[in-house]
Amino acid sequence: MTYCLAIKLESGFIGIADTRITSGNMTTTAKKVFTINGDNHSFFIMTSGLRSVRDKAITYFNETIDSEDENFNKLYKAVNAFASQVKRVAREDKEALMESGFNFNLHSIVGGQLQDDAEHKIYLLYPEGNWIEVSEGSPFVIIGNSGYGKPILDRTVTYHSTMQFALKAGFLSFDATRISTNDVGFPIDVLCYLKDSYHIEEQRYTRDDLREVSKFWGGKLSESVASLPDEWTHRLDALKQS
Questions:
Q1: How much is the CA Rg of the chain, to the nearest whole Å?
Q2: Which end of the chain is more exposed for a tag (fewer CB within 10 A), N or C?
Q3: Which domains does the chain have, with CATH numbers?
């Protein structure tokens, strides 16, 4: 499984991707983010799904970039070009994968800003090649294992949050997922993009880098639960005596 998150903010965007790859009883580490930084031209692709499908689609897309990159003046055009390669891989491999008991399940997040984009944008691309754009009203998207970390973001992050706040909330969302499942884990790759900068900054964090943050959050969470008003629990007789 995977945890990939992108948050669109008024001032830029934040991205987080885990690196754990599981195959049967084997666990390895591999990067799940593909990044392009150029003159007035910057975008990323995060992926969730079969690694073989991902690698083939990215390889094909790299060839497209080599020949057509200058034609991508808006991000949706790059998204469409990558979608074409995803559909190409589906035509080549989907039937054989299904016969072997595997689903063609490549979900992708594409985000960035190209020279003719009025602002930075984030898109969610489905395995079928269709996509939706992330909006201000729902400013984040997760692919992979989303159930454990989404509630934290729903309660805290808005389009007007600061990038630092969004990164903190994003890490807590990843950390909740990591603790609750064994197929998501460190290290994580963090992306940071400032509006109109045309440069995605990337940083990798290990478990040791963020161990104290995770420990601090766990302690604060326990303290918060303990300090919740408890009058409503008194209707239960057993709790009165505990």
A1: 20
A2: C
A3: 3-228 (3.60.20.10)
